[in-house]
Design a protein that fits this description.
579 residues; RNA binding; repeat; Alpha-Beta Plaits; RRM_dom; alpha+beta; four-stranded antiparallel β-sheet; RRM domain-containing protein
């Protein structure tokens, strides 16, 4: 005899309801869709508190009302914690089994445990491998080795992780210790971990720790809520907003540089990237990040599979372990075109770009402390007020503010340097009216040219300078090295990078010939850093480049170098006293 299923025409069974549903929400749900209220309802909760959904049985007065409710609730999308899934509705009923002999049900036997891998769910999304290690130590478990963190599938609250232990016995003990342990995600609501052997989950065994596969209905695919989990197997594929050729590596030690990354690729057997760019964080001086661009998508994917959540680096200065994280970098904005793409600019766009470069190369006046609401017409009116000619003004360029403030600034482009210097003198100190009913003076000066517009290299870069040196110490060292004082226009000490012992310095030389002589004199010089001699790194700061201006335009005249009196030095200072 076969089983008999008896349907109740006045009751429906609803599955995948949010766990937080109650009588008030059920009443509002019926009123929102114009349905009569049920005469009775029963909520069916799962025994595990971690389940996010529940089921219910609604009983109505007649079959017509039941059919209307069944039509409304079938496939109705509901939302819980930022996730949406459709409801499943059918007529309620009961199954009457046959009277035949009861056969014992044979469960599939799980294969023997051959790998020490444990799958843990409900792990807080903000936890890292270091946090898991601390959690294991708090439970008295020391066999934990590494972890592979999977992406979150519930809006960034929790995720699951694959934990590897030294032995299979340690993995079995970890399952019993971790199952039911209380953790606190960022949401503040405590959750309990669900742990099970990864081999049981892969072979479809029903573990006793709550990790089991969701059963499929006839003719249906996997559950809607499991679609995010099914995508975990493709986490090594780049998303639609990610660049499949570029990786972003974060949480690196601050002293990690390009050579260290190349050496790391050699040690791990990964093909080196085509471009490596190290990024130093301003707010956190103990960490840095890097952008790695590879030649092919296969190289980037292979590097991601090796680098993701597997590196443990030690910061040499703090002595702490850091766990870098690797992921595909985000794509560039579609408005930004690559320089190597010949088709990225059309005919008129290419001409506009050349025209912008020509305007950018003109002498400019930097004007600051302007009203925040000033327009280009207002700037031109201000130029007329101080006696300037609008025919000489080529363009007005407003500068974007890094921080939101109450003032604006701009650049006034002119054809020659004499006009720019004259307008800077006239505009400096001119008082303008601001929106707060006050007048303030304008600051104006001749803007410095971009480094790309320098026709002759007159700057020398000096590296490995001790970070406690000042400009006075630098002048003494240069005199000791035989550099004449009158060839140095000024000395600029660069800011110290995190994790570096020394700093850099820029020597502004009066001419290109003098810069070549200074370069020869400083090459091979050594200084004492922490009692050890270290050679200076000396090179030209700016390589000579062709100007961006049109060939028929004359070069802007260079202002004469000011006379610098040579100070009298009574006796040379030895290098050992400069520390």
């Amino acid at each position: 005899m076969s089983d008999t299923f008896i349907q109740d025409r006045c009751a429906i069974f609803l599955a995948d309801l949010p766990r937080s549903i109650d009588g008030d929400k059920i009443s509002r749900l019926h009123m929102a869709y114009g349905l009569p209220l049920p005469v009775d309802f029963q909520l069916l909760h799962d025994s595990t508190e971690t389940q996010a959904s529940c089921a219910a049985i609604f009983r109505y007065t007649d079959p017509t009302t039941t059919d209307g409710a069944l039509e409304v609730f079938s496939g109705l999308p509901v939302e819980y914690n930022g996730r949406y899934w459709p409801l499943r509705a059918k007529l309620a009923g009961m199954k009457i089994p046959d009277r035949g002999p009861i056969q014992p049900k044979e469960m599939p036997k799980a294969p023997p445990v051959d790998d020490p891998i444990v799958l843990v769910r409900e792990v807080p999304a903000d936890w890292s491998q270091k946090d898991l290690m601390s959690f294991h130590l708090s439970l008295g478990m020391e066999e934990f080795q590494t972890a592979r963190m999977m992406p979150s599938s519930d809006g960034g609250l929790t995720r699951h992780a694959y934990l590897q232990y030294r032995t299979a016995a340690a993995a079995s003990n970890a399952v019993s210790s971790l199952s039911g342990s209380l953790v606190h995600p960022r949401s503040g609501e405590p959750r309990r971990l669900i742990a099970g052997l990864a081999s049981d989950v892969r072979h479809g065994a029903h573990g006793q720790n709550g990790i089991r596969g969701r059963q499929q209905g006839p003719g249906k695919t996997s559950g809607y809520r499991n679609q995010a989990r099914d995508r975990d197997s493709d986490h090594f594929e780049a998303g639609p907003q990610q660049d499949p050729y570029t990786l972003y590596l974060s949480d690196m030690p601050s002293d990690f540089n390009k050579k260290d990354l190349e050496r790391l690729h050699d040690q791990l057997g990964i093909i080196k990237p085509k471009v490596i760019k190290v990024l130093y964080l301003r707010l956190n001086k103990s960490k840095s990040s890097a952008v790695l661009r590879y030649d092919t998508m296969e190289q980037a994917k292979s590097a991601l599979m090796v680098l993701q959540d597997r590196l443990v680096l030690v910061n040499e200065h703090s002595g702490e372990e850091q766990h870098p994280r690797a992921q595909f970098a985000r794509k560039r904005s579609p408005q930004l075109a690559f320089a190597q793409d010949d088709n990225s600019y059309g005919g008129s766009d290419h001409e506009d770009r050349e025209e912008d470069d020509t305007i950018y190369a003109l002498p400019s006046v930097y004007v600051a402390e302007l009203p925040i609401n000033i327009t280009e017409n207002g700037v031109r009116h201000m130029v007329q007020e101080v006696g300037g000619k609008l025919d000489d003004l080529v363009a007005v360029t407003f500068l974007q503010q890094k921080f939101k403030g109450s003032h604006a600034c701009c650049l006034l482009r002119y054809q020659d340097m004499e006009t720019a210097e004259s307008m800077a003198e006239k505009l400096h100190g001119f008082r303008v009216y601001h929106p707060d009913d006050r007048t303030r003076p304008v600051r104006a000066k001749v803007a410095k040219h971009s480094k790309a517009l320098n026709y002759m290299c007159t700057d020398v870069y000096v590296g490995e300078v001790p970070n406690n040196w000042t400009a006075s110490y630098m002048y003494k060292f240069l005199t000791q090295a035989g550099v004449e004082r009158n060839v140095i226009h000024s000395v600029k000490l660069l800011s110290q990078r995190p994790g570096r012992v020394g700093v850099g310095a820029i020597l502004h030389i009066v001419s290109a010939e003098a810069a070549d002589r200074v370069l020869e004199q400083l090459t091979g010089q050594e200084i004492l850093v922490r009692g050890k001699p270290r050679p200076l790194k000396v090179r030209l700061a700016d390589a000579p480049k062709e100007p961006w201006m049109e060939p028929e335009q004359p070069e802007p005249p260079q202002p004469p170098a000011p006379e610098i009196r040579k100070p009298a030095i009574t006796a040379p200072v030895p290098l050992s006293q400069l520390q």
